[in-house]
Specification:
The complex is a heterotrimer of chains A (440), B (279) and C (276). Chain B is mainly α and 279 residues long. Chain B has helices at 2-10, 12-28, 36-72, 80-86, 98-129, 152-172, 181-224, 230-249. Chain B contains eight helices and no strands. Chain B starts with a helix and ends in a 30-residue tail after the last helix. The chains are: A mainly alpha (440), B mainly alpha (279), C alpha/beta (276).
């Protein structure tokens, strides 16, 4: 609460649109920033690594906490919805016995009925909680909007520096957004619950004599009902960090944008050396500079020349450089690989073992199945029936959907676990290597 | 100058197409052999991309997210990000390079935190979806997708899916020693099954790259081609035929010594002490 | 034998020329019109748009640049055509600096052809760098505030198409990408909010994409250029995708033929060396 109140004050604490005052504030910030960097340069060596480790850890903690702890206030409601969802999924599985007419249909139906009754009780309890919590949330929203308005008036903050909610016209800051989202989520949860109840009522009418196709459709509605409960549950996150995700993201994007100069400096330095030393190919480096400056210049000129006559010329030149040159060069560079792939396939793809033969066969089948030519080869086979499995498009599709997907998933699990372990090592500064072990 | 400007404005579409075609041919010229036109086009490409990067970083990132809030809306605290961004440039300082590691470490930390979130939502559903039904519920060879129930073909395919998944995971599982026979066999089978995936990846890579070339060729034939006058086409066609003819009929230089087939190796007789070496 | 030497060592420039000819001919002249079967993933993508409830809007994520426009732009084109035909408004979300302009121009051309209006039937929010996760999570809290303005600087809450809309109005995500950004969309939009996703990867990513098709984490997939060609068939429209699919057939046939020729030459050469 204190954090939110501080944030409200912070977000409204702006100078009253006087350029000189604003410039002074910005100047002070820049000076403080430079002072901080100056302090860092004076930091003793033994403190440097711990500071880097701490910074890496704390900034990673933001997203970690935001994900791991969905918040306590809504936890009981989420638990109820989870219990109801579990009942729906159990009933959905049990009803499969009716669809395929298994021997234990009556036992399964009884089990499904029990699961749905439990789900109904959970939904009733969840509805009670929503009825209790929603008025509080609405009251909090009303108070937050009033507080924001009072602050703005007391400080004489001009309207243009504030943000307003489009629907209600009230001031929109992090606090009001949080409460507005909570009210909205509770309303959506109630909506999801009523959709789920409708599916549940249909499912409770199923008996052993219900046609399998109808039962299958009811299973589909149960699945949809469970999904809407899952959706409601995931929306009901009141993690205290979630409202700050967007501002934190914006800050990281802006800081990252300042790093563009690193790449530009690197390129410019290399080509400047080539030009100054008149190395072979220095004219190409000159062309690099001309192209870079030209593109930057016309880009800015077309945006900032306003209605002057030169603006349309800038725009035309920009279009020529972008659509004509850059577009074509980029696409053509990528397309060169087509030639190299053909040449490499011809020269290097040699079948020297069983495994390479299997790989080649799989490659041929997939390549042919994805294009009309391959379809033409087996077009004589029937489209339906058992013989259709020998049609090339079906073979290729089967390879992609079963052995390929399984192998890809195996690799993906390995990559995922490895990536997670790597992320953990970087976050906890346990990673070793030439960059991480460098002397500070 | 004024005439040039008005010409460019009036004929910008044609100029764009001609510039595009010239750039395309300049890049494709490397397929014949390395040449200065390709190098020039390559450097121009890098220059244009860098220039666009500078312009768009300002117009789409810094101006709307940093400059406008800071100066337009009075959110003066955005000025602190300048100091944070400046930390990157300490990479070039020998004494204070660690300051750049501070900001890079921070950005990496945020990235790793985000990776945890992505992992759960992406991989957990895959794990649950991997538990497929392998027992057919309807004893038919094939059941259409619209009908309920599991036919024999789908049950067998699911069984194969699970076997492939387990064997491929066993192949990549290096924490357990692969010395035991069962583990070795499983991993070896996994390697065989991986060939399906590699073959599919090769086939689709070929398709992807071909599509990019087809896109370029389509640009040349349907967009640029129609604006080229006929006489130019004929001249280009004639030049191309000449070039092909020259290439095929060119006098080839004699084979160098090291290209000749290796001579038969003659065993060298052992050299007697103080005696001459046998040939 | 000289034929063996030729088979094994065709000059790479001859190979390049063969490829160029084999691709150029079906592009320029329609010599044959080959059948194009519709795969279940493409059909499923089509059905997803056909069955979209009224009042929902779509998000189209553009991660590609000019390098892969042959596939991704074509995929985007066929899907945008379908959205326009069905009357589903959409928000174009470009994440690539160069791809932004190319994608916007494509949509502008289609809008002109099908008489659709910007602000009513479609908008583009312009190039947006940064973590996808932040944009999605911010949109969950307040979509119009997070996405901010369209490419002309008009706030989203003033545009008729997006006024009063929230994340729950998003009924579809179309992801056109040459890289692995699908995970983020699934993690923060598809899985938690159950928004259907149509995945449009370049052909390189197609084998990996079938993983997501199998787990039903995506509602449909357009595999590369052929996926776009199949989709065009479903729309009863003829465009670059179909021409490209025919050219692709010939290119694949050439690659397969060259691999076979290379292997035959290799085997025969080895036998000859062995017997010599």
């Amino acid at each position: 609460m204190i954090l939110l109140a501080n944030n409200l004050a912070f977000s409204l604490f702006v100078p009253q649109a006087r350029p000189a005052v604003l410039a002074a504030y910005i100047g002070v910030c820049l000076a403080l920033g430079i002072g901080f960097i100056f302090l860092l340069t004076a930091m003793p060596t033994r403190f440097r690594r711990p500071i880097v480790i701490a910074t890496t850890f704390i900034l990673g903690l933001f997203y970690f906490l935001e994900f791991m702890f969905p918040g306590r206030q809504m936890a009981p409601l989420r638990d109820r919805l989870a219990a109801a969802e579990s009942g729906f999924r159990t009933a959905q599985q049990d009803l499969y016995a009716v669809v395929v007419q298994r021997n234990d249909v009556s036992a399964r139906l009884a089990h499904a009925g029990q699961a749905l009754n439990d789900a109904a009780r959970s939904l009733d309890k969840a509805a009670e909680m929503i009825d209790r919590v929603k008025p509080d949330a609405e009251e909090q929203l009303r108070r937050a909007a009033e507080d924001a308005s009072r602050w703005a008036k007391a400080r004489g903050v001009p309207g243009k520096v504030l943000e307003f909610d489009a629907e209600t016209g009230s001031i929109s800051d992090i606090r009001t957004q949080t409460y507005r989202k909570r009210v909205g989520d509770l309303a959506k949860a109630a909506e999801g619950m009523s959709d789920a109840r409708a599916a549940m009522e249909k499912a409770q009418s199923v008996s052993a004599s219900t046609p399998p196709k109808e039962v299958d459709a009811i299973r589909g509605s149960l699945a949809a009902g469970a999904d809407s409960l899952a959706l409601a549950r995931s929306n009901l996150s009141d993690n205290f960090l979630s409202p700050y995700t967007q501002p934190v993201g914006d800050v990281s994007v802006v800081i990252g944008a300042f790093a563009l100069g690193l790449g530009i400096y690197g390129l410019a330095a290399v080509h400047a050396k080539a030009i100054s030393g008149k190395r072979p190919g220095w004219l190409n480096s000159l062309a690099f500079y001309v192209a870079m400056i030209a593109m930057t210049l016309v880009g800015f000129l077309k945006d900032y020349l306003g209605k002057r006559p030169a603006q349309s010329l800038s725009e035309s030149v920009y279009n020529i450089l972008f659509y004509g040159a850059l577009n074509a060069l980029s696409a053509t560079m990528f397309s060169l690989v087509a030639f190299y792939i053909v040449s490499a396939a011809y020269r290097a793809f040699r079948v020297k073992s069983g495994e390479s033969a299997l790989m080649m066969a799989s490659a041929f089948l997939v390549m042919l199945s994805l294009v009309p030519f391959g379809v033409l080869i087996t077009s004589g086979l029937p489209v339906h029936g058992w013989a259709s499995i020998f049609r090339l498009e079906n073979i290729g599709h089967w390879i992609l959907l079963f052995p390929n997907a399984a192998a890809q998933r195996g690799m993906l699990f390995g990559i995922g676990v490895g990536g997670l372990a790597m992320a953990l090592r970087v976050w906890l500064s346990l990673e070793r290597g030439s960059y991480f072990d460098k002397e500070m | 100058m004024h005439q040039l400007a008005s010409f460019i404005e009036q004929h910008s579409t044609a100029v764009i197409l001609w510039v595009g075609a010239i750039c395309t041919f300049a890049i494709y010229s490397v397929l014949y052999k390395e040449n200065p036109y390709y190098r020039l086009a390559e450097h121009i490409f890098i220059g244009l991309a860098s220039g666009l990067g500078i312009y768009m970083t300002w117009s789409d990132v810094l101006k709307p997210k940093w400059w406008d809030p800071m100066v337009g809306k009075g959110q003066w605290w955005w000025a602190f990000t300048v100091a944070a961004g400046a930390m990157f440039y300490f990479m070039y300082s020998k004494r204070n390079a660690w300051i750049s590691r501070l900001i890079m470490g921070g950005m990496m930390g945020m990235g790793t935190g985000a990776a945890f979130q992505a992992f759960a939502n992406t991989y957990f559903p895959m794990v649950t979806a991997s538990f497929k039904a392998v027992v057919p519920t309807v004893l038919k060879a094939h059941i259409p997708r619209t009908e309920p129930g599991l036919g024999i073909d789908l049950a067998l395919s699911n069984l194969l899916f699970i076997i492939v998944l387990i064997t491929v995971m066993a192949y990549f599982f290096f924490s357990i020693d692969h010395r035991s026979r069962s583990m070795r066999g499983t991993a070896s089978l996994g390697r065989w099954f991986l060939m399906f995936a590699f073959g599919a990846m090769f086939g689709s890579t070929v398709m992807a790259r071909m599509a990019l070339f087809i896109g370029r060729l389509d640009y040349l034939t349907t967009e640029w081609g129609p604006i080229v006058p006929l006489w130019l086409w004929m001249a280009a066609g004639g030049l191309l035929l000449l070039a092909i003819g020259f290439f095929l009929l060119r006098p080839r230089p004699p084979k160098k010594l090291d290209e000749q087939p290796a001579e038969e190796v003659v065993p060298v007789e052992p050299v007697a002490e103080g005696g001459a070496q046998a040939s | 034998m000289r034929i063996l030497t030729i088979l094994d060592r065709i000059d790479r420039r001859i190979v390049y020329l063969l490829l160029a000819v084999v691709v150029f001919v079906p592009l320029k002249w329609t010599i044959f019109s080959l059948p194009l079967p519709i795969t279940p993933e493409v059909q499923s993508a089509y059905d997803t748009i056909q069955n979209m409830p009224k009042g929902k809007i779509a998000w189209i994520s553009v991660v590609w640049g000019p390098g892969t426009q042959a596939e991704n732009r074509t995929q985007m084109e066929v899907l945008v055509r379908h959205l326009f035909m069905k009357g589903v408004p959409f928000i174009l979300m470009p994440w690539d600096q160069q791809g932004t302009k190319v994608a916007e121009k494509q949509v502008e051309d289609l809008a002109k052809e099908l008489h659709k209006k910007e602000g009513v039937d479609w908008i583009s929010i312009g190039y947006r760098p940064g973590y996808l996760m932040n944009i999605i999570k911010g949109s969950i809290i307040n979509m119009n505030k997070t996405l901010g303005t369209d490419r002309h600087g008009t706030p989203l809450y003033e545009i008729p198409m997006t006024k009063g809309k929230t994340i729950s109005n998003v009924g579809l995500l179309i992801e056109t990408t040459p890289s692995g950004t699908l995970n983020d969309w699934i993690s923060y939009l598809g899985q938690p909010l159950q928004v259907p996703i149509i995945y449009c990867p370049t052909a390189v990513m197609v084998p990996d994409g079938y993983n997501y098709v199998d787990t039903k984490q995506v509602a449909g997939m357009l595999p590369g250029l052929t996926g776009a060609a199949q989709y065009d068939e479903l729309l009863h429209h003829t465009g670059f995708a179909q021409r490209g699919a025919d050219a692709l057939s010939m290119a694949h046939a050439l690659v397969i033929a060259l691999i076979i020729v290379g292997n035959v030459g290799y085997v025969l050469t080895r036998r000859q060396r062995g017997s010599a």
